Amino acid sequence: MGLKIDIGLIATPSVTGLPARINLRQTISSNFPGGEAVSITYTVEGAGKVVFEGGGTTFQVAGVHVPENSLQREDTVGLVWIGSPSPAQIPIRQEIVGIEDACHDGVLIAVQ
Questions:
Q1: What does the domain layout of the chain look like in residue ranges?
Q2: DSSP letters for 66-88
Q3: CB 6 within 8 A of CB 27
Q4: Would you call 101 helix, strand, or coil by DSSP?
Q5: Mean pLDDT to the nearest integer, 35-46
Q6: What is the CATH topology of the domain spanning 3-111?
Q7: What is the phi/psi pair of residue 85, to 5°?
Q8: In this prediction, what percent of the chain has a pLDDT beyond 90?
Q9: How far apart are the first and last CA of the chain?
């Protein structure tokens, strides 16, 4: 197994109104000598109420180099309402795809 999540995905803020910018942070590493290139896909499961800015349910980050040593990294995404706003718990799922394997993580955002 090449990829390892050293510290799981954290969202800041984890409770927010919308529209909002959310910082998604985690620490990852690889056991391949010299590291490896990965692609990261975030999927918002907003039950038809919440999407990423631009209207999509996925947000992709390509060409991330994950070294052998732990790498703390952060992505910023925008979330917006579609339809009528109402308080909800919105999962954001993450898939990191490397050379040999994939890792999965996720976080829950409380929207008001």
A1: 3-111
A2: E-SS-EEEEEEEEEEE-SS---E
A3: yes
A4: coil
A5: 96
A6: Immunoglobulin-like (2.60.40)
A7: -65, 140
A8: 89
A9: 39
